[in-house]
Amino acid sequence: MSADALYQEIILDHYRRPHHKGLRAPYDIEVHHTNPTCGDEITLRVRLRGSGDETVVEDVSYDGDGCSISQASTSIMADLLVGATVAEGLEVEAEFHRLMLGLGQVAPDVDRLADAVALAGVARYPARVKCALLGWLAWKDAVVQVLGTRPATGEPTP
Ligand code: ZN
């Protein structure tokens, strides 16, 4: 099986059997992002635990509608985020973002991106990059909103 065929299979697998999908409670923040050019939508909920550098992503849940790239990318992202620290989650977002804006010229960090490398080929199609980034932008937005309202070092949320 060629790399492209394998990547295609990973994307379709996440699209057909998305991981962590379904909106769950409790959560700290809910955000809704859309990609009007393709008609993709995502509602994303994030639940954090702990404080400061030790803040961990306890859960990422979402519901969405749209093309296979947008939905698979969000499923892959949720796999990478759940259980990671917020700092790690932001690093992997930055890495994925760098890959997507690289026009296919940027080599993916396979260790960090795991299944997300399957989306590397999307970077060659700028019109689809917004699909792949939708969930990730929602994640970044959610974190910025939560950390903006929570002291960096304080009591963990009960
Ligand atoms: Zn799309």
Overall description:
Helix 2 (68-81) runs parallel beside helix 5 and helix 3 runs antiparallel to helix 5 (126-149). The longest helix has 24 residues, at 126-149. This protein has helices at residues 3-16, 68-81, 86-100, 110-113, 126-149; strands at residues 29-35, 40-49, 56-65. By secondary structure, it is of the alpha+beta class. The chain starts with a helix and ends in a 9-residue tail after the last helix. The protein has a single domain (3-147), classed as Alpha-Beta Complex (Sufe protein. Chain: A), CATH 3.90.1010.10. The mean pLDDT is 92. The chain has a three-stranded antiparallel β-sheet with strand order 1-2-3, covered by helices on one side. It contains five helices and three strands, in the order αβββαααα. It binds zinc ion. Residues 35, 38, 40, 66-67, 69-70, 131 line the site of zinc ion.
